[in-house]
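Exam revision sheet. Question 4 asks you to relate a sequence to its structure. Input first:
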Amino acid sequence: MSDVSRVLGIIEEGDPHAAEQLLPLVYDELRRLAAQRLAQEAPGQILQATALVHEAYLRLVGGGSDQHWSGRGHFFAAAGEAMRRILIERARSKRRQKRGGGARRQEFDEGLLAVDDRADELWAVHEALQKLEQHDPQSAALVKLRYFAGFGHQQAAQLLGLSRRAGDRLWLLARTWLLQALGGEEK
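Answer key, structure tokens:
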């Protein structure tokens, strides 16, 4: 059993100090995940990888959350999902601001336009992924593990209990479905 799995077990048992032991064990990998996620965002992103890691970590182990992880992979998948939700909340907030939610008149700044366009794109992906989840939860889970949690194809398939071939078929299905939902074409 890895140190991460051991500490996760201690957290589940209710030890209030176990979360302090977990952060040093997972920080570098969470930071890599966050940097990977933020690299996909538009230039001008205000949120830094460190802040994203800290906020996601607090959501996972802080505030008396009643989380149960079946191991290291499950924890990192949950961390990727927490990061995705944080970015979606930020995109939702930017959309509200873009649509005039209490905004004051301001001079046009092209730099802001790029960030807003990316927020719209992220929102569209989020909505398409929610629809895919209703249609095919396993395909949506594979997308989340690969795209948001940063797992490789084989790791993600393995976490879902799939063979590599089944993972390939599911990935093709998910990609095709999402491309169609987003109005794109398969290349």
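Marking note for examiners. Confidence is low (pLDDT under 50) at residues 108-116.
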